[in-house]
Amino acid sequence: MPQSKAHQKASRKYNEKAYDRIELKVTKGKKTNLQAHAESKGESLNAFVNRAIDETVERDNADKSDT
């Protein structure tokens, strides 16, 4: 069922308030591979990228505290 214009506007307003956007560029073909990998893990591409970022930051911070 298509969303009403009011619902679309409310969703856009919420997203602008709740989220920051980051443009990510990858080489041709890589997006398809990343989407397939994310799907194999039961995730959206967005969820996969966010998880990868969170895990990397956590690991980097743990490495920093070990020194």
Describe the structure in your own words.
This protein has 67 residues and is mainly alpha-helical. The protein has a domain at 25-67. 70% of the residues lie in helices and 0% in strands. The chain is built from three helices and no strands. The protein has helices at 5-18, 30-40, 45-66. The longest helix is centred in the C-terminal third of the chain and has 22 residues, at 45-66. It is extended.
The helical percent reads: over 70%
Strand content: under 5%
Average pLDDT figure:
95
- Termini distance? 55 Å
Question: Mind summarizing the main beta sheet?
Answer: none
Helix and strand succession? HHH
Rg (CA only): 17 Å
Count all strands and give the number.
Answer: 0
Uncertain regions spanning at least 5 consecutive residues: none
Number of helices: 3
Class from helix and strand fractions: mainly alpha
User: What sort of overall outline do the alpha carbons produce when their principal axes are compared?
Assistant: extended
Secondary structure layout:
Elements: H1 5-18, H2 30-40, H3 45-66
Keywords:
67 residues, mainly alpha, 70% helix
Summarize this structure briefly.
This protein is an all-alpha fold and 67 residues long. It has 3 helices and no strands. The protein has a domain at 25-67.
